[in-house]
User: Fold these one by one.
Assistant:
Number 1:
Amino acid sequence: MATRPTQATPPRGLPPKPGMLLPMRVWDGPVRLFHWALVVALLTSWLSIEVLNNLRIHMLAGQALLVLLLFRVVWGFVGSETSRFSHFLGNPFHAVTHLMHMTKKEPDTQVGHNAAGGWMVLVMLLVLFAQVGTGLIIADEESFIEAPLNHLVGSEWGAWAKKQHRLIFTGIQVMVALHLVAIFSYAILKRHDLVRPMITGKKRLPAATPQPRMRSPYLALAILAGAALAVWLLMTKV
Ligand code: HEM
Ligand code: HEM
């Protein structure tokens, strides 16, 4: 059920003038909700263990994060055009050339992730998967902690996972800092506001820009339900 309104339309049905900037939908609702829910789940995992020292909340937030990640992977194959991996993972050399133009002030004509940002998204998703994966098999004999899937690997791997979990967490902190620095740099160096489109879904683009294909939010909901069911089965039946 893909919809493609051909182009953005100017207000009151006026014909678009060449070079005119018009608001266009670049991010669908599911990706925006995914993004901000991911931020909440990550902060909850972090604060629950480091500030509240509450492992129950920590693991619940971590499982919610796993649901979100599974959803995002599937949406990356069947979702709206700008959400698809095939749309934003291109030639890595283009990512390098993109970064080399970082200081150049030019109009923002980007629809979806840029060549460098796309690879960063993949790295972020993989690192978060690694954090959840290690978390699920942790065992600590001293404090009698056993994560839900530790029985699959035993206590030696559990102890190894605990160390990696700490290490990857440091990686996540670096990664989030880089992510924020990148977004800040686009605002300062190029005057590109990437944050507003991640909130509203819309961006002002030249009138001739083709509107990206959007998929039905009901499909997203079905995928989210499937991801939640998969995580529930993993936690209770494996
Ligand atoms: C389903 C997902 C997750 C599970 C099952 C899980 C499980 C655990 C467990 C069992 C511990 C306690 C280790 C111990 O003290 O022996 C722990 C610690 C910790 N987790 Fe997670 N975790 C998950 C996701 C995450 C995520 C997404 C983050 C990122 C914020 C995170 C960050 C941490 C940190 C910082 C610690 C403290 C590590 C230390 O000081 O040694 N975890 N986790
Ligand atoms: C816990 C912290 C955060 C994590 C783990 C995170 C992760 C991500 C991920 C995975 C994406 C890709 C979205 C997708 O295609 O599914 C993304 C995109 C984005 N994030 Fe974050 N994010 C975090 C915090 C923030 C914050 C605080 C802001 C706002 C200041 C922000 C602004 C953005 C923007 C603007 C994009 C789209 C970039 C583009 O136009 O290509 N993020 N983020």
Note: The first helix runs from residue 29 to 50.
Number 2:
Amino acid sequence: MDKLVMKELIKKFGTPTFFFDEKILRDRIEYLRSRMPESVSLCYAVKANAFIIPYVAKLVERLEVCSPGEYDICKKYMISTSQMVISGVHKTKDYIQKIVTDDIGENGSCCAIYTIESLRHGMILEDVAREMGTTLQVLLRLSSGNQFGMDPIDIFEIAKYQIEKYPHLSVKGIQYFSGTQRRSMKKNAREIASVCEVMDRLRLDYGLKCEEFEYGTGFPVCYFQGEEFEEENFLKDFSEAFSLVASNYKVTLEIGRGIAASCGSYVTQVVDLKTVSKQNYAILDGGIHQLVYYGQTMAMRHPYYDLYSDEKQYSQTDEEIKNWNLCGSLCTTNDIVVKQLPIKRLKEGDFFVFHNTGAYSVTEGIALFLSRELPKVVLIKENGDAALVRDAVKTFTLNS
Ligand SMILES: Cc1ncc(COP(=O)(O)O)c(C=O)c1O
């Protein structure tokens, strides 16, 4: 974003604040689409950042909704259930009933898609569908070796007894999530092949023809200076590895980080500077409860950032480069955002603008810590207008 525009926004909204830029988001989605086979659809994983839902929903085919909280937010934003994939390891009957009640049409049909992540999920979905006189569309989630999804044996079990035990479920295909920040194309290719094998077996051994493959790609994002990653080449290889699959199945790529990260900036102000035991500390009005970088190790890695300062304040004596530890306002020695960052000039009142913070920071930060206020969130429209979509919120209130 233009520096002058950002400075004006900081003046207007103060700090700490997340800024999410819709123009960058649109460009990012267009870029990803342009690098994928044409028939591939995109599904935005809401957990990455729920604030951009209304805008991103216009740009992608689907939204992956992973909890009742995310579902409620989507409903508040008037997102149609037909655009939702209801995912997640914890599905209750009440939750599914609520969605089906919202979703069911006058003719008794439903539009939402659900993932089945265990045999129990299968039973819950079947019970709700039967009791409410409808059929639910489902994707069987194949595990990538963790608590999410099922082993092939359970997937085949559902396929084997589809007609007897799950007559109210219509199996559309497989959902598979690789894990986040996946850079290994070899691993991706192996995974794609093993998912295809499962879909082949479903067809050949159980007569269940999968139409869809929904794939959580875990596209990587670079957060730190010096990281080496050739995204253009990576996406080219990915697209090639995927083109055959895309010609056999309706493919949807589930992406959170890869869509949302680049549109976000987190701005925090330097409120104090000091040297203690020969270490230089800059105290920020934000902190680790709000700013989370995947892959950060003991604050040693240096993220992409800009420093906004009032040039008039500086003199010749400020030219010396010093290493600064950037610390937040929490009452823990862990609250170090970055360690030993070499900076030439730093003054109280300067602003750090941390880049690529559009995904997860705003949803993963331990925001309740120390009863600090939640940061403000500002959406910047394509026409440049900036709207405050969440004001600073107190996380603790006394009932009197
Ligand atoms: C099922 C599912 N799909 C998609 C995603 C998005 O992953 P990423 O943000 O790495 O793209 C996640 C992240 O946890 C997930 O659990």
Note: The first strand starts at residue 17 and ends at 21.
